[in-house]
Write a structure and sequence with these properties.
This protein has a nine-stranded mixed sheet with strand order 7-8-6-9-10-11-12-13-14, covered by helices on one side. Strands 15-16-20-17-18-19 form a six-stranded mixed sheet, with helices on both faces. Strands 3-2-1-4-5 form a five-stranded parallel sheet, with helices on both faces. The protein folds into three domains: 88 residues, NAD(P)-binding Rossmann-like Domain (Rossmann fold, 3-Layer(aba) Sandwich); 209 residues, Mur-like, catalytic domain (UDP-N-acetylmuramoyl-L-alanine:D-glutamate ligase, 3-Layer(aba) Sandwich); 133 residues, Protein-Tyrosine Phosphatase, Chain A. It is of the alpha/beta class. It is 34% helix and 21% strand. The longest helix has 16 residues. The N terminus is likely disordered. This is UDP-N-acetylmuramoylalanine--D-glutamate ligase. It holds the Pfam family Mur_ligase_M. It comes from Pedobacter psychrodurus. Keywords: ATP-binding, Cell cycle, Cell division, Cell shape, Cell wall biogenesis/degradation, Cytoplasm, Ligase, Nucleotide-binding, Peptidoglycan synthesis.
Length: 462
Amino acid sequence: MSTNNITSSNTKSAMTGQGRVVILGAGESGVGAAKLAQAKGFDVFVSDYGIITDKYKAALEKLSIPFESEKHTEELILNANEVIKSPGIPPTAPIIKKLVESGISVVSEIEFAKRYTNAKTICITGSNGKSTTSLLTYHILKNAGLNVGLAGNIGQSFAAQVATEDYEYYVLEISSFMLDDMFEFRADIAVLLNITPDHLDRYDYKLENYAASKMRIIQNQTAEDVFIYCADDEESLKAIELNEPLAKTYPFSITKKVEPGAYLEETTIHILTEPNNLLTMTISDLALQGKHNIYNSMASGIVCKVLELRNETIRESMGNFKNIEHRLEHVAKISGIDFINDSKATNVNSTWYALESMTSDVVLIMGGVDKGNDYDMLKDLVKSKVKAIVCLGKDNKRIHDAFEDDVEVIVNTFSADEAAQIAFHLAKRGDVVLLSPACASFDLFKNYEDRGNQFKAAVREL
């Protein structure tokens, strides 16, 4: 069966008068949206400008949902009542411009799915830490016995779960790209971890545009809802001034006392959302170490206190949580050298957090698709902690320009194998080889997972 052709194993669409829904993008998000739209009686069509993977093609065929691959046929798209688009498709894509000109509603999978569930939503966004915080929050809620799903930018599609499950709560990791296509969606609990320059190529290279996108996390919230934010993050505070929250607010800080909210006093975290119900926990008891993870743990802790979970459950879960793959993931210790996979660090701020948590000399593997990175914020950490940089990307000029005065050795490599081998030779016993690229992966790899998996395989071959 040719992937270039419009395909349906059985073109009986569910025509029940509810209208036509077209889904652009046939990945996890798009196929999940197709599943829910079909379940709700819509006439569904899926179009992907790229190649649809066998896994998702099989899922669509099983449901008898018509689809096309490697093209967008306008006459099959511009007749939609509504379009659900993948977050990866930019608003500048020709088909999106035509849809907007035609007055056809274009929404995200998250917006569409929320219409069909009464579950409470805990929505977590931020430039860094949102996957870790989402997983930690989900882990605690599940351990507390709540009927909870995990979705959004992580795990199984939100729409697919709404179609097939009956959860009372959802923890949703929400990216700025998703927020851009969310209009009536309302978060019961919204969490903003931080705002640092990321994806600026999608926002006219203006941080204020990106910040405005992040603040859509609180749109439609009421006084009954909750907004949790970092009181130490300058850009978040600026954005909050421009978009005053209506919800109950709970800040968190490691530099000052905030009540209600969460704060760090010496080595103890204090979380207080209601008078006389204080949760305290020493940072050495947290499964997640490093300054950035104190912030992540505080944000999760406030969510759990707002939901009135027991202090003992929160403490126990924060102590036994295992972090996600490709996020400061320990791969192996070889000849006394630790290898750490932080491939999920696709922006400069993530790499800053990774370096900040290192206590040994570092051979840093970085590079890839530069999204307009400003490397200045890394310079002090690179000077004090990094003995060599191994570039892993097709074009490494900006990394050389940024750090040639700060480290003695900067080497170019073009595969994970080569990068791991050279880093191993540059490191000595007691050092850390850290893959923390600060860049997207699409020049040499399919995605950051592929980059991380190839790195891990290369390390195990050493």
